[in-house]
Amino acid sequence: MATQRIRLAPRWIIFLIDLGCCVLAMSAAFLLRLNFNINEINHYPLPKILAITLAVNACLLIAFKTYAGIVRYTSVEDTGRILSVNTLVCLIFLLIENIYPKSVNTGSAALFPASVLLIYFLSINFLLIIYRLFVKRAFHYLFSVRKKSIKAVIYSAGFEGILAKKMITDNQRSDIKIISFIEDNERLIGKIIETTSVVRANKANMERLSREGVELLIIADPYIKKQRLNDLVDICLELNIRIQQVPSSEKWINNTLEPDQLKNVNIEQLLERDIIKIKNEQVGKEIRGKKVLVTGAAGSIGSEIVSQLLQYNPAIIIACDVAETPLHELSISLDHEAKVKTFIGDICDRIRMEQIFEIYAPDIVYHAAAYKHVPLMEEHPSAAILNNVSGTKILAELSVAYNVEKFVMVSTDKAVNPTNVMGASKRVCEIFIQSLYKNIAVTQHKSGNSKAQPRVTKFITTRFGNVLGSNGSVIPLFKKQLEEGGPLKVTHPEITRYFMTIPEACQLVLEAGAMGKGGEIFVFDMGSPVKIVDLAKKMIRLAGKEPERDIAIEFTGLRPGEKLYEELLNNAENTMPTYHEKILIANVREYDFATIHNDINNLIDLAQKHFLMETVIKIKEIVPEFISNNSIYQKLDIPPGK
């Protein structure tokens, strides 16, 4: 059975209090006007005046229902209604004043002198409004503030911050007590907003607030810069202050902020950088009306590429993947199903892949299908070659045969100075498609009649680092380990990685496809690398726990093929700028196509026979900078005789 709200004061009591205030205000008006001279007051028919006052006010109070509102929730609208009613009452008194002496001449003084009415108007508004505000404040203190046990401060004293403070303070179900705003805006620092002071958002003030018992910082600025958020989080974690965020006000449920809408800051927000704004209209021109093939479409990167492509109105997207269930989930999650055709197929199956090109004749190929897990590929190098290298070779050759306009391949920072089979396999892919493009372009140029030749497929590569939230990445793994009570397993105390978001990574892929002229390897400014152990500690603290005390961190040792620091460029490489300072083109060593084509065919032949050691030896011949690390293949790097 639903519980009913207890009404502390019935409406009729409020009605009687309001009438009492009317009588008191009218009496006070005469006393003040006549300087408390009783003899002067006796010249007026005070009983009759008070009776008229009661009658007129009673009628208007009932008509406008000013007594019906809940006093403890008095708002600006209630105040406006009271002012309107009292204005109307005074106008009626003036009307009575003008009529009464003329119709019934008793020789007595006027009923409602203008000066008395002015004092009455001010007095009655003061009484009716002030007692409501007093009750509201008293109720708020007795039944709300005293119950609130968590002291908090709000970052942002702007519109969003003030609104969040009001909602949190007025919500009786919330146990949060806001004691201050913190701000970076110089114009607001030092001000008092709704009885709450605004102080500078710095470490000294946060330390003082912490000593005063502050346990929580609420971020109310939806547009806070990532670096500023990181700074505040670092200060709060050091002071053992929890951090939560409120969604922007347009996302509030029924225009109300409920306690469960306060969310903890997550690690992805701290690793994200401020959005890099790229306004390249060429992307839209490249995609609009085109038939686009995306391999690995059910994966983290591939599915986001599909989603972003839909914004540019392609004719059709062929989403190809070998994983049935994820591909099905992708198809039912998209709003533009008619423009997306799912195609189950293994990129190593040339006949199956050729069916895609025969049926759909794609104009652009985004190749995101690959085996990516380093330790697993170290155990199964032949599988890495068959999927990553043979699959890429098949798709690249079919793209040339079917006159595909552009072929954009997703590569990795692990292809730079590779220390593992996975990274080396991706470097082989880069070498193949670059040399293939150069061979086709040179051949056509030598023929002299480029117009008579089919268009040259432009092969483009993109490299980037670890992607936040991608399948099998470190953050989902840490979250799972946290839920299980730890320990968080880190391979090495010094291991670092670059991070970027999935949308950011896919934006790079589309940009590369748009600006690429053929043969380029695009690299992305990944910002600063992150120490994985620091990442683990921060995740533990964000969960409200203390590293090593509540949740242990365990160092398991580098996995096979893993290196401490990832690179985006080879030492022998340099870069060329593009139109955007965050996107660069790597200058890499060029290979003779005939030689590399023969070498890769031999490599694939070894992989098909699953000769593991021979396969790795051949990879090292093709990629001489491939030096194995923490792997059984390290012995292959030892020169003979040593």
Distinct helical segment count = 21
CATH superfamily descriptor of the largest domain: NAD(P)-binding Rossmann-like Domain
Strand order of the largest sheet: 10-9-8-11-12-13-18-22-21
* Topology-level CATH name of the largest domain: Rossmann fold
Describe this structure in words.
The protein is α/β, with parallel strands linked by helices. The protein has three domains: 11-142, no CATH class; 148-265, NAD(P)-binding Rossmann-like Domain (Rossmann fold, 3-Layer(aba) Sandwich), CATH 3.40.50.720; 282-467 and 499-524 and 571-632, Rossmann fold (3-Layer(aba) Sandwich). It is 47% helix and 14% strand. It contains 21 helices and 22 strands. Strands 10-9-8-11-12-13-18-22-21 form a nine-stranded mixed β-sheet, sandwiched between helices. Strand 8, helix 11 and strand 9 form a beta-alpha-beta unit. Helix 1 crosses helix 5 (114-144). The longest helix has 31 residues, at 114-144. The radius of gyration is 37 Å and the shape is elongated. Residues 1-6 and 102-107 have low confidence and may be disordered. Pfam families: CoA_binding_3, Polysacc_synt_2. Residues 292-586 form the Polysaccharide biosynthesis protein CapD-like domain. This is Polysaccharide biosynthesis protein. It comes from Taibaiella lutea. InterPro entries: NAD(P)-bd_dom_sf (IPR036291), Polysac_CapD-like (IPR003869), Polysaccharide_Synthase-Rel (IPR051203).
